[in-house]
Amino acid sequence: MLGARRSFSRLAAAVRTPVDVPRMPAFDHVPLPYDGPSAVEIARKRAEFLSPSLFHFYSKPLNIVEGKKQYLYDEHGRRYLDAFAGIATVCCGHTHPDIIDAITAQANRLQHSTVLYLNHAIADFAEALAAKMPGDLKVVFFTNSGTEANELAIMMARLYTGSHDIISLRNSYHGNASGTMGATAQKNWKFNVVQSGVHHAVNPDPYRGAFGPDGEKYARDVKEIIEFGTTGHVAGFISEAIQGVGGIVEVAPGYLPLAYDAVRKAGGLCIADEVQVGFARVGSHFWGFETHGVIPDIVTMAKGIGNGIPLGAVVTTPEIAQVLTRRSYFNTFGGNPLCTAGGLAVLKVLDRERLQENAFIVGAYLKDRLRGLQEKHQSLCMHLTNVIGDVRGAGFMLGVELVTDRQLKTPAKDEICQAMEHMKDMGVLVGKGGFYGNVFRITPPLCFTKEDADFFVDVMDIALSKL
């Protein structure tokens, strides 16, 4: 890992600021003067007092001190277009006044008590959240994060079914605690600790998968895992509709209905991990699983649920929810009134400002422009056969995979680091991910505009041209 970071630093150091920079869309906001510590001082403290496992983008880490809607500002007042949204988290835009007001009003009245007492904030938000769910999914358990939500969901599936075996997908990421680390299926995120009872099915990846977009062929592996790797009975199946950390990988069409059917025939529950893909991000639907025409037994969520507040949730049916009454299940901060007041405000903003519709319209426009960029960059330079191997995703959960050879699909791991530096220098912040770290993760706030999309693609165009 250290060698990889040093390599990244050498590459980044070679990046030069481009001369012809596209013009960023106009924006009527003046950031407050910043008189806090510099990036250098913060980096020094971080190195001394925070975990050495923390990493950052860019050769010189940015000191982000303010945000407004789809823009961020550094310590010098420079504006950046945020195309990552704190890892698909800031769905309504930075410092949305309605959300800030809801949090502030609740904080002025009561920051925390305990769920042992009654308070309307948690009940109001649970009711509003349940109204967004299909079928009989209407009982809500609040948590503090996506990892915690997935941990709880897996435990509930095991308790309800009396089985231990969980099936997840290769290349998936579901969290970094003991149970969720077992369900996660990338060595990059796994430590050598006990991770029992999880089987990883072949990933139904239309781009890199063995069967291309044929969901039926991938689903056979789920059946075979049940028949050959378990007693024939399983606790559950967990998946994302679009893998986030895995590199914005869309599940092959037709896969989820078949996988759900196989798991349910084996007595298992189906868990939809909506931590990144949920809350209107895909545009066409509020939840990612809805794009596949399935209804899960348990849904987990976080990130967009609170627009940046530490908040997660598990939603299930009344019958399944009963399993937690066998003992005492308790979460000190799950359902905290300050967080749930903010969460309710998020739902209201999403609806009132029609951000799902915006994600659908502008997301489709952005994807079309990215596909145009893919066609343009067929032969960028002598040593690269192709740079953009795939453009995928939906709404504002889009991925652009960089390769050095389009036929071999060789990951362009070094090139993406250089491109990200170029884009940052031109005022665009974007994420990256995938097993090989060669996929742009484009997950902006849902208030992203067509002008922002044009600026983003124009900047990426120049960055790729300089490789």
Describe the structure.
- Strands 4-12-11-10-7-5-6 form a 7-stranded mixed sheet, with helices on both faces. Strands 13, 14, 15, 17 and 18 form a 5-stranded antiparallel sheet that branches.
- Residues 1-18 have low confidence and may be disordered.
- A hairpin with a 5-residue loop joins strand 17 and strand 18.
- It has 467 residues and is an alpha/beta fold.
- The protein is globular.
- The chain has helices at 2-13, 39-49, 85-88, 97-109, 120-130, 146-161, 178-183, 215-229, 255-265, 318-321, 337-352, 355-376, 413-425, 450-465, and strands at 64-68, 71-74, 79-82, 139-143, 166-169, 198-201, 236-239, 242-243, 249-250, 269-273, 298-301, 312-316, 388-394, 397-405, 410-411, 428-429, 431-433, 439-442.
- It has 14 helices and 18 strands.
- The two termini are 24 Å apart.
- The protein is 36% helix and 16% strand.
Can you give me a brief rundown of this structure?
It holds the Pfam family Aminotran_3. Helix content is 36%, strand content 16%. With 467 residues, it is α/β, with parallel strands linked by helices.
Strand content: 15-25%
- Total strands: 18
User: Looking across the biggest beta sheet, what order are the strands in?
Assistant: 4-12-11-10-7-5-6
Outline the biggest β-sheet.
7 strands, mixed
Helix content: 25-40%
| Mean pLDDT metric | 94
Shape: globular
Which parts are unreliable, with pLDDT below 50 for 5 consecutive residues or more? Answer: 1-18
Structural class: alpha/beta
Separation of the first and last Cα atoms: 24 Å
* Rg (CA only): 22 Å
Number of helices: 14
